[in-house]
Description:
Largest interface: A-B, 36 and 32 residues
Number of helices of chain A: 5
Strand content of chain A: under 5%
Distance between the termini of chain B: 45 Å
Number of domains of chain B: 1
Largest sheet of chain B: none
Shape of chain B: elongated
Strand content of chain B: under 5%
Order of helices and strands of chain B: HHHH
CATH class of chain B: Mainly Alpha
Number of domains of chain A: 1
Oligomer: heterodimer
Radius of gyration of chain B: 18 Å
Shape of chain A: elongated
CATH class of chain A: Mainly Alpha
Structural class of chain A: mainly alpha
Helix content of chain A: over 70%
CATH topology of chain B: 3 helical TM bundles of succinate and fumarate reductases
Radius of gyration of chain A: 21 Å
Number of strands of chain A: 0
CATH architecture of chain A: Up-down Bundle
CATH architecture of chain B: Up-down Bundle
Amino acid sequence: MSLTTPLRQVLGLGSAKRGVHHWWQQRLTSLALVPLSIWLLVSLLSLPAYDHATVVAWMGQSWTALLLILLVLIASRHSQLGLTVILEDYVHATGMKTLSLVLLNFVHVLLAAAGVFAVLRVALGGGA
Amino acid sequence: MSRYTLATSIFNRFTGAALSLGLVLLVYWLMAVAGGAAAHARAQRLLCLPLMKVIYAALTVAFCYHLLAGIRHLVWDTGRGLERAQSQRSAWAVVIVSALLALLVGWCLWQHQVHGP
């Protein structure tokens, strides 16, 4: 006979309030992307040209670099969360689903890292 | 009739997936800029192909739609606008306003190409 109470046996099982994590992250990232994406669009449209020197000067400004880094990081997360839901809904074979989710994860980490690296390289004057 | 809301939901997913490709293009461009003038010139040749104009136009439409449909979702999350009549109205509003916004952005892009900003 077990001496633990029924309550003790079920505590800690289930989602433990983490079930809404994906949903909440998708909302947070979408809220942040409203101003960030509008900023990028307006900022790109107000550049006088897209030659290398102009773009480097633009990316070299502190605020531009900071906002670009935030945008790349948050957009990568938002994109990963959204595509994850799409894959989960439409890819049904278990092996294929796992493989595609792993690839999705890797590709988004790569995108985020490459974006941040590129902006920092230009902004800190290492390359270009 | 829930067909409007169904269509807007599917189109939101579709445009979101398209914008993921836009993110890939953005990062590719940033990497090219970071790679120096020669790397940038190489990427520029690809990014300025006539086919890319079609892609930029599609991405503009996708962005405008996804932005407004996303804002509609955020409003829903506050518990507002969930009645059937309201969500049908907002579905139309998203389609019409995003079409106008896409036209405005497209016009700006066109002006930019012809005259500069």
